[in-house]
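lol forgot to send this yesterday, sorry. struct tokens for the thing we talked abt
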């Protein structure tokens, strides 16, 4: 089965045609993509493909009900669109991808694959916010977790590379958005993102977790409205907020090398949070066997991996300096563990596309979730 994969992220759109062996036989990447207003290129790409047997869409939020790969039929598209408030940066882009491809390939079955689905069996202790019970019941407030397609692939690859199905893996997806997952025996047992993709690590343009009291203070005392606050936390915070410039870690690191004070501070804040939370994920599953880095930053930025690992020796993490320095995303999935370290560390190329194709095939074969 040839599967066209549509991966709409917050900062990019990635289209891939995968053959039955998961080889990428056609690709289009749009670095900057606004979503609904800009679908001609997707349509042209999809229309120009010789053979598409099925389409798989990455959809960031599935809410409480869409918990596995789902054929886009009936009201499914509208149910996905109805979750826009919970992922305003992402959900409209996912829906735009569904609409654009349906326009040019109306007879090809499409399957929605959700970032949230991998985390659907998180233990209650990990999903529950300590909020009034009445609110939780009325609005279904809970932590969902995201980047599940990437975490599922990264953790599976770590299991294969370790040759252990029961491994405890901390998966670090570090892209424009970023999150960690604690994965034990292939199942997500904790993760950093919550009700929305705003909780957790410092990201390119997102704040990650901040004190809720600080947000209340801003609303009450700084004259900010809810809309302004939302706009500031999402596209104007994170690395971009810290440097007052680009949220691209490549640029930040150039500033670090040039000794620019804001860039050094931003890098330190990013790494401090990352390191602390890796240890937290390990604690959520009584230790770890493998640490995996994936996503644009995880794959291509040796200094981030080195700086995060530098504080984790107490857990048994240690990187081989040369192997880590050489792992810049071109050499496939590689190990970067220092000789003798108790925890194995891998760099795994993010393959949300192959995870989606796998789920599409499973859903269309009728054997449920992949
Ligand atoms: N070739 C590269 N070299 C260094 N850093 C990279 C490279 N590609 C991507 N990155 C980093 O990864 C970030 C984007 O991650 P990516 O996973 O591609 O984005 P998205 O979350 O939109 O899928 C960029 O901000 C950049 O810092
Ligand atoms: C969920 C999320 O943050 O996705 P992305 O990294 O693509 O923005
Ligand atoms: Mg991404």
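and heres what i got for the seq, position by position
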């Amino acid at each position: 089965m040839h599967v066209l994969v549509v991966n709409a992220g917050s900062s990019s759109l990635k289209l891939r045609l995968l053959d039955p062996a998961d080889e990428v036989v056609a690709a289009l990447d749009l670095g900057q993509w606004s979503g609904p207003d800009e679908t001609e290129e997707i349509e042209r790409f999809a229309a120009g493909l010789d053979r598409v047997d099925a389409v798989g869409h990455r959809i960031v939020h599935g809410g409480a009900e869409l918990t596995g790969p789902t054929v886009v039929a009936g009201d499914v598209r509208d149910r996905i669109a109805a979750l826009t408030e919970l992922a305003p940066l992402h959900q409209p882009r996912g829906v735009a991808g569904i609409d654009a491809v349906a326009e040019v390939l109306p007879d090809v079955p499409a399957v929605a694959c959700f970032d949230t689905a991998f985390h659907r069996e998180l233990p209650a202790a990990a999903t529950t916010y300590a909020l009034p019970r009445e609110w939780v019941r009325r609005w279904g407030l809970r932590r969902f977790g995201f980047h599940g397609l990437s975490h599922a692939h990264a953790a599976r690859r770590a299991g294969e590379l370790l040759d252990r199905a029961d491994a405890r893996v901390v998966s670090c997806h570090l892209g424009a958005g970023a999150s960690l997952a604690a994965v034990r025996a292939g199942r997500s047992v904790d993760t950093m993102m919550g009700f929305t993709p705003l909780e957790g690590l410092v990201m390119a343009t997102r704040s990650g977790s901040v004190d809720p009291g600080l947000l209340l203070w801003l609303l009450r005392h700084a004259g900010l409205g809810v809309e302004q606050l939302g706009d500031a936390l999402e596209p104007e915070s994170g690395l971009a907020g810290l440097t007052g410039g680009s949220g691209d870690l490549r640029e930040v690191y150039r500033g670090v090398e040039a000794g620019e004070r804001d860039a050094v501070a931003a890098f330190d804040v990013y790494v401090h949070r990352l390191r602390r939370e890796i240890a937290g994920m390990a604690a959520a599953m009584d230790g770890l066997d493998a640490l995996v880095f994936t996503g644009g930053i995880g794959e291509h930025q040796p200094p981030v991996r080195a700086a995060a690992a530098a504080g984790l020796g107490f857990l048994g993490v240690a990187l081989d300096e040369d192997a880590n320095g050489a792992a810049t995303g071109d050499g496939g999935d590689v190990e970067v563990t220092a000789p003798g370290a108790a925890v194995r560390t891998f760099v795994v190329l993010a393959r949300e596309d192959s995870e989606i194709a796998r789920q599409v095939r499973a859903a269309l074969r009728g054997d449920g979730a992949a």
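DSSP finds 15 helices and twelve strands in the chain. anyway ping me if u want another try
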